[in-house]
Structures are given as structure tokens and as C-alpha cells.
């Protein structure tokens, strides 16, 4: 299969020209190694573009319904990434406040004579409230993000885009130690078709996220010892958090636009 005239054939699932499997993924310019068997449940949009004489035997509304649900969660996904900046600021401020309390408590323990029970300082009510509010904002971030991600991944699944993780495992990967460093990245990346430039945006987003986590740990260490150099790392961490938010918001819109192009190839895609 090749583009005819000046009209390129869009990415999608098409009958495998080799006949070894039911369907093979066309990336817009060449066949890829991605195959599907049994056949995708909704190839009508692709076949209608590649073969004008093709008439679908039946309507398959599920993928379109799922895409409609995804579009409703797009604003929440963008809001979640925006809220991450607030989470980052709150965490950095709370860390320095708590570090001051820990240093004070350590000094009390260190200077208390042997055999005497040390009287530890009590945390201020403001600090306790700030910690609780930070946890609430962080929880809201993950809830909104996971809702959007699940709906986007389900749309991609019904489009039969190749994916390493199921929608559920992609969401659950955020909360599984160790694998949370790459499962969510793979799940979000695979919402794009292979070869889609949007995957590069996901890579930049994830690099900022991992970098912010690392800088947070370094900041925590300097804060505990009261070293002002920690403020430099805190600034870097904040900048990376802003990068994660920026590329995350772009990712939400790009995925929705990519799914729209695959479902409605004859229409001009508009990024939400």
C-alpha cells in the first residue's frame, strides 16, 4: 500500500498485505511491526479513507462513545497538571518548615541528660494544617489525572493502538513502588499511535517529572541540615515541576486531537 496522488493514507489498521495476520499498522508512510489478531472492532474510518468503495456492515458506536467520555475529562486532565505546580510549591515550603522542627527536636534530644525524658517541641497548628492541605491537593491531582488517563487509554485500546500496559495497570502504575518510574509514562505514551510526534512531548513531560522527584530528595537532605544551598535545588525542582505541568497540559490536548484524527480522518482535528 502506498499513498496515491497527493493524498497520503492516514495512520491506521489495514488488512495485512502479507496475509500472515488480520491487520497491520500503517504509520502514514510504511508498514510497521505492529499487528492485530483478531481484527480491530472499528476499522471503518480507516477503510473508508483507504478504500472509498468500502461500506461498513454495521456501526460500532463504542469507540466513539468512549472518545466522547474522554473529551469530557480533558479539562480535568489539564487542571490536574496545572495543580501539580501548587503541589510542588506546597511540598517545598512544608519541607523547609518541617526540617526546622526536626532540627529543633534533634537538638533537644541531643542536649537532654542521660536518663531524662526529653520534652520535644510541638508542631505548630499552622504547619500541621499546611501538611494536611498539601496531601489533599496532591490527592486531588492524582484523582483527576488518573480519571483522564484511564479514559484516554480506553479510547486508545478501542482504537487498537499498540500498548504495553492495560488502561487499569497504567493507572495503577502510579501507586506501585519502583515501576511507577516508567509504567505511567508508557501508558500515556501509548495513547498515541506509533510514530506520532506527540510521544516526544510525553518523553519531555516524564523527564521533568522524574527530575523534579530527584531534586525534591536533594532539597529534603539540605533542608534537614539547614544548608541554604537547598534553596538552589528547590528552585530547580520548581522549574522542573512547571515543565511537567506545561508538557502535561500539551499532552492531554495532543492525545485528544490524535484520537479525533483517527476516528474522523476526513475532518480537521482541533486540539481541545
Account of the protein in words:
The protein is mainly alpha-helical and 272 residues long. The chain contains seven helices and three strands. The chain folds into two domains: 1-60, no CATH class; 62-263, no CATH class. The chain has a three-stranded antiparallel sheet with strand order 1-2-3. It starts with 11 loop residues before the first strand and ends in a 9-residue tail after the last helix. Mean pLDDT is 80; it is low at 50-61.
Major beta-sheet overview: 3 strands, antiparallel
Given the helix and strand composition, which structural class is it? mainly alpha
Total beta strands: 3
Order of helices and strands: EEEHHHHHHH
CA(first)-CA(last) distance: 32 Å
Oligomer: single chain
Spatial strand arrangement across the major sheet: 1-2-3
How much strand content do the residues show?
5-15%
Compute the gyration radius: what is it? Answer: 25 Å
Percent range for helical residues? Answer: 55-70%
SS field, number of helical segments = 7
Shape: elongated
Number of domains: 2
Helix and strand topology:
Blueprint (H helix, E strand, L loop, with lengths): L11 E4 L7 E4 L4 E6 L7 H7 L11 H50 L13 H34 L8 H6 L10 H7 L8 H28 L4 H34 L9
Helix pairs in contact: 2-3, 2-6, 2-7, 3-7, 6-7
For the structure shown, list the relevant keywords:
mainly alpha, 272 residues, three-stranded antiparallel beta sheet, 61% helix
Amino acid at each position: 500500500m502506498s499513498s496515491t496522488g497527493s493524498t497520503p493514507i492516514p495512520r491506521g489498521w489495514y488488512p495485512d498485505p502479507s496475509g500472515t495476520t488480520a491487520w497491520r499498522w500503517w504509520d502514514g508512510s510504511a508498514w510497521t511491526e505492529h499487528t492485530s489478531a483478531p481484527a480491530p472492532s472499528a476499522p471503518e474510518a480507516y477503510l473508508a479513507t483507504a478504500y472509498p468503495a468500502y461500506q461498513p456492515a454495521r456501526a460500532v458506536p463504542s469507540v466513539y462513545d468512549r472518545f466522547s467520555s474522554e473529551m469530557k475529562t480533558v479539562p480535568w486532565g489539564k487542571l490536574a497538571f496545572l495543580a501539580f505546580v501548587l503541589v510542588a510549591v506546597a511540598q517545598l515550603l512544608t519541607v523547609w518548615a518541617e526540617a526546622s522542627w526536626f532540627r529543633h527536636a534533634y537538638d533537644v534530644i541531643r542536649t537532654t541528660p542521660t536518663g531524662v525524658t526529653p520534652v520535644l517541641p510541638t508542631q505548630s497548628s499552622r504547619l500541621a494544617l499546611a501538611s494536611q492541605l498539601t496531601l489533599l491537593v496532591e490527592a486531588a491531582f492524582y484523582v483527576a489525572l488518573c480519571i483522564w488517563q484511564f479514559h484516554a487509554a480506553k479510547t486508545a485500546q478501542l482504537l487498537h493502538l499498540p500498548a504495553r500496559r492495560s488502561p487499569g495497570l497504567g493507572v495503577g502504575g502510579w501507586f506501585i513502588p519502583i515501576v511507577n518510574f516508567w509504567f505511567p509514562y508508557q501508558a500515556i505514551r501509548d495513547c498515541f499511535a506509533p510514530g506520532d510526534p506527540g510521544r516526544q512531548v510525553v518523553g519531555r513531560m516524564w523527564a521533568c517529572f522524574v527530575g523534579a522527584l530527584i531534586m525534591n530528595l536533594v532539597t529534603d537532605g539540605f533542608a534537614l541540615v539547614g544548608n541554604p544551598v537547598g534553596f538552589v535545588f528547590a528552585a530547580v525542582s520548581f522549574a522542573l515541576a512547571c515543565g511537567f505541568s506545561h508538557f502535561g497540559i500539551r499532552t492531554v490536548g495532543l492525545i485528544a486531537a490524535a484520537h479525533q484524527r483517527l476516528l474522523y480522518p476526513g475532518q480537521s482535528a482541533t486540539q481541545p
